[in-house]
Amino acid sequence: MTHSTFGVVMNGVTGRMGYRQHLVRSILAIRDQGGVELADGSRVVLEPILVGRDAAKLERIAAQHGLDRWTTRLDEALDDPAAGIYFDAQVTSAREAAIKAAIAAGKHIYTEKPVAESGEGALGLARAARDAGVRSGVVHDKLYLPGIRKLRRLVDSGFFGRILSVRGEFGYWVFEGDWQSTQRPSWNYRAEDGGGLVVDMFCHWNYVLENLFGRVEAVTARTATHIPQRFREDGSTYTATADDAAYGIFELTGGIIAQINSSWCVRVNRDELVEFQVDGTEGSAVAGLFGCRVQHRANTPRAVWDPDRPVAERFRDQWLDVPDNGQIDNGFKVQWEEFVRHVVDGAGHPYDFLSGARGIQLAEAGLRSSASGQRVALAELTP
Ligand SMILES: NC(=O)c1ccc[n+]([C@@H]2O[C@H](COP(=O)([O-])OP(=O)(O)OC[C@H]3O[C@@H](n4cnc5c(N)ncnc54)[C@H](O)[C@@H]3O)[C@@H](O)[C@H]2O)c1
Asked: 14 lies in a domain?
């Protein structure tokens, strides 16, 4: 079996996503399995070059995982002709400039979402990548969740008949950071640092909705900053300037209505941290991160509203589990393998900068809707 090596510049690997999902669970896991297998059976071995601002942290991570290449100089890493891909998991506000530099250096780009802080910025990057002839990819991780894959299987099988509506519940309580440490970075709650729930989550909802059900044609949203003051990592207080909850209605092609509540200020009374209920003429499903349950038209019990009698039925027991039917690998790793095949083998890859730009377009439209109190229609983006 033949092997080739491919350098990957990884920026932001000291962060939550960059370290755990991308370095450890993707790039190092791919290294441990002997590389990415291509269509002809040969393999590409990925060689990470770590980039960040803190030399001590980078050195520690490199030593811990037996890596010898790290630098605090992005330009130095981009100058390496053996590096074919630039990857970005920095804070969102630092991304656009770094990706521009990587495109100018002729690297293919794979990045965390959102691609940029504005739709215009993301579209600019999509055009720059196209003009430079480099390939682009954006993390679309929710599509790779086992529960969402099962949901997609149901859609593809025609299980639902005509899909009428989608109802999503996403969220959990994020501690403010005083009497219990917070479980998310504090920049997430400051608009001036690229934070905010809409910017964070509407990018995800856009690709979930358009890949499973239809393009988002219009949005009506109401955002809130429910918790006005939070605590930084060092214990000092700050004013939350970004939204920490969003209540949205999304109109999709084909007349499907999706409603999604997204909040970092709710306590979980669900089976999973995100759940989508899909109702169609022939059947319904509830999908989460891992599980997916269905109820077919033929198994739908006759519900009767009766205020005089306590409920005797256990409604949730009336649903059937959709089986895994196979092993489902880590979604971040699978996306890395697909992107490498896209770059090296020319395999198709729909989750590019333009798809990422549609996500930010939706986030901007959601924020505009909330500020104006109006429904906002979305124009189709062209590169
Ligand atoms: N796909 C997903 O499900 C998912 C989940 C969470 C976050 N994200 C995205 O991943 C990115 C990183 O989020 P995170 O939660 O890992 O954040 P984090 O704060 O844990 O990590 C951010 C990284 O950026 C670096 N950084 C911080 N400030 C910087 C600055 N001013 N300039 C340059 N670098 C800076 C940090 O050193 C760190 O390496 C964000 O764009 C976020 O939207 C995606």
From this structure: yes
